[in-house]
Specification:
Number of strands: 3
Distance between the termini: 22 Å
Helix content: 40-55%
Strand order of the largest sheet: 1-3-2
Largest sheet: 3 strands, antiparallel
Order of helices and strands: HEHHEE
Oligomer: single chain
Structural class: alpha+beta
Radius of gyration: 12 Å
Strand content: 15-25%
Low-confidence stretches: none
Length: 78
């Protein structure tokens, strides 16, 4: 994946998190990436993307039976 594609995926993950301030699971993130953006991704690459995003916006990880990711609404990186 080239740098532009990588950046596009990071932005897509950030937008998905923004639209789900109550939290979203990893599986839901992966499904939405594919359904909404046509991006196929695995868990490891999404964890890497979230790690990059945490440098710029607060992302919270909560365990509710499984990991749930969320960020503050209005922490837009655009």
């Amino acid at each position: 994946m080239n740098n532009a594609d990588q950046l596009g995926k990071i932005v897509a993950v950030e937008r998905i998190l923004q639209r789900h301030p109550g939290g979203i699971t990893m599986k839901q993130i992966i499904d939405k990436l594919y359904e909404e953006y046509g991006i196929a991704a695995d868990r490891r690459s999404i964890y890497n993307n979230i790690n990059v995003l945490t440098r710029f916006i607060p992302i919270f990880v909560e365990k509710r039976g499984r990991l749930v990711f969320s960020c503050l609404k209005g922490s837009d990186t655009e």
